[in-house]
């Protein structure tokens, strides 16, 4: 186990900590991540999963890794059902015409060419829709309005909203609805809807489904509460198509234990409304810049660093063969998953890191104390909450037994921008982005140049 108290081991560990502090300070003085996120968002714009833009961005990222000294750079391609938005629109048609600002939800099917028009039935939760009799829903447009999502530092208000977005269209379809709309899963009050994926049911899409901007959701709810029947017309020309997505990965091989792998993850795909700056070009920039900071520090760590830019994080898929990059990566690893000592991902924007959550058993350990020494000066506190799942991309690694950590970012404004046309480069604060890189570089060096074994730290089941 790392950071032992015997004199010979401590001397080596002290040098590791001091170098981590130096890497932290080197990162704080640079802006490499900003250059990377600028390249990705400017060169390629939005990068929907499976699109030509996502594929071109992946090829660029592989070239970037090779040009900057990464080894074993490869692109891991897998089949995908892509989704293209096409044209979309919505309007209240009765009792009096009013426009609605809507965004089709990912992988929902198109409406008929003439659109779909029907009376709206409103629910305030998924459970209320589930409990409703079929007679209340059949032939209608289902509208779920759970109220405005509240901004929280940890983003914990998002889960209940995504549960509605992912599962409610299937429930509405089973009860005979003709379309589905919901209040956007976001914390802003802008007239910009938040898109996001729906789920397939038995390999098939469900209903034409849309998100309403917050002001439009308020307007529709007020009108319905007034008591008159309300009708809405919706239109979408969305389509699906067969394509491929890919994971891009490259290694900085370890000096003495190259078979022990640390994964630094993020995802390269984005939604199509903005340019995917905070979700998640920023994450790729942070992890790449952290690895390059370590490389530029003049010492190779003992363990291998593997930066992975996953594909197809944003969308649901109809079969196990088509998929998300995180699942594909683990399936292709096979038994080699045992070589992975820890994984982390950056996928919560570009605002500052405020806490470090380590795998179970590491709380209060000498490793956590060393990490606190390195990270506290830049405002990162040690958390006693263990990290169990990691995130969408590294979740499959966690389920396969790989320990995961989180450098928790301040998500207070993340869901103002998430999945909207407002997710653009100008929303990134360069200083906060740089602090992310410093936290990643310092922490990853501590893990990579030590013998810390998070698997052995785990408490008994």
TrEMBL record:
<keyword id="KW-0325">Glycoprotein</keyword>
<keyword id="KW-0732">Signal</keyword>
<protein>
    <recommendedName>
        <fullName>Carboxypeptidase Q</fullName>
    </recommendedName>
</protein>
<keyword id="KW-0378">Hydrolase</keyword>
<dbReference type="InterPro" id="IPR039866">
    <property type="entry name" value="CPQ"/>
</dbReference>
<keyword id="KW-0862">Zinc</keyword>
<keyword id="KW-0333">Golgi apparatus</keyword>
<keyword id="KW-0645">Protease</keyword>
<feature type="domain" description="Peptidase M28">
    <location>
        <begin position="247"/>
        <end position="441"/>
    </location>
</feature>
<keyword id="KW-0964">Secreted</keyword>
<dbReference type="Pfam" id="PF04389">
    <property type="entry name" value="Peptidase_M28"/>
</dbReference>
<dbReference type="InterPro" id="IPR007484">
    <property type="entry name" value="Peptidase_M28"/>
</dbReference>
<keyword id="KW-0865">Zymogen</keyword>
<keyword id="KW-0256">Endoplasmic reticulum</keyword>
<keyword id="KW-0121">Carboxypeptidase</keyword>
<comment type="subunit">
    <text>Homodimer. The monomeric form is inactive while the homodimer is active.</text>
</comment>
<keyword id="KW-0482">Metalloprotease</keyword>
<keyword id="KW-0479">Metal-binding</keyword>
<keyword id="KW-0458">Lysosome</keyword>
């Amino acid at each position: 186990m790392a950071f032992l108290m015997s004199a010979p081991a401590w001397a080596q560990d002290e040098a590791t900590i001091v170098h981590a502090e130096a890497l932290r300070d080197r990162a704080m003085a640079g802006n490499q991540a900003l250059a990377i996120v600028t390249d990705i968002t400017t060169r390629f714009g939005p990068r929907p999963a499976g699109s030509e833009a996502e594929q071109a961005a992946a090829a660029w990222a592989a070239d970037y890794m090779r040009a900057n000294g990464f080894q074993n750079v490869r692109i891991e391609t897998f089949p995908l059902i892509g989704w293209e938005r096409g044209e979309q629109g919505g309007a209240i048609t009765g009792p009096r015409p009013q426009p609605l600002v809507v965004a089709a939800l990912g992988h929902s099917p198109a409406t008929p060419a003439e659109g779909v028009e029907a009376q709206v039935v409103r629910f305030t939760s998924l459970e209320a829709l589930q409990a409703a009799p079929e007679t209340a829903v059949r032939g209608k447009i289902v509208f779920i309005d759970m109220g405005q999502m509240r901004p929280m530092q940890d983003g914990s208000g998002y889960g209940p909203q995504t549960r509605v977005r992912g599962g409610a269209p299937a429930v509405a379809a089973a009860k005979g609805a003709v379309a589905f709309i919901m209040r956007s899963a976001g914390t802003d009050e802008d007239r910009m809807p938040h898109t996001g994926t729906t789920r397939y049911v038995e390999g098939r899409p469900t209903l034409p489904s849309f998100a309403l901007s917050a002001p439009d959701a308020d307007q529709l709810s007020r009108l319905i509460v007034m008591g008159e029947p309300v009708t809405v017309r919706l239109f979408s020309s969305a389509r699906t198509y067969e394509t491929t997505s890919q994971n891009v990965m490259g290694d900085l091989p370890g000096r003495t234990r190259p078979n022990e792998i640390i994964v630094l993850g993020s995802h390269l795909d984005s939604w199509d409304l903005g340019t995917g700056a905070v979700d998640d070009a920023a994450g790729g920039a942070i992890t790449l810049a952290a690895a390059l900071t370590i490389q530029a520090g003049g010492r190779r760590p003992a363990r291998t660093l593997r930066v992975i830019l996953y594909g197809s994080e944003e969308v649901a898929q109809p079969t196990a063969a088509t998929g998300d990059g995180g699942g594909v990566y683990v399936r292709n690893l096979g038994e080699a998953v045992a070589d992975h000592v820890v994984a982390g991902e950056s996928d919560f924007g570009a605002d500052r890191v405020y806490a470090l959550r380590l795998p179970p058993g590491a709380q209060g350990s000498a490793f956590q104390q060393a990490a606190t020494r390195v990270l506290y000066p830049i405002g990162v506190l040690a958390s006693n909450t263990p990290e169990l799942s990691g995130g969408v991309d590294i979740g499959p690694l966690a389920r396969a037994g790989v320990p995961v950590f989180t450098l928790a970012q301040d998500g207070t404004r993340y869901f103002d921008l998430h999945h909207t046309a407002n997710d653009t480069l100008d929303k990134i604060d360069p200083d906060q982005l740089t602090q992310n890189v410093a936290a990643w570089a310092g922490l990853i060096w501590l893990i990579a140049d030590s013998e810390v074994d998070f698997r052995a730290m785990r408490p008994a089941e």
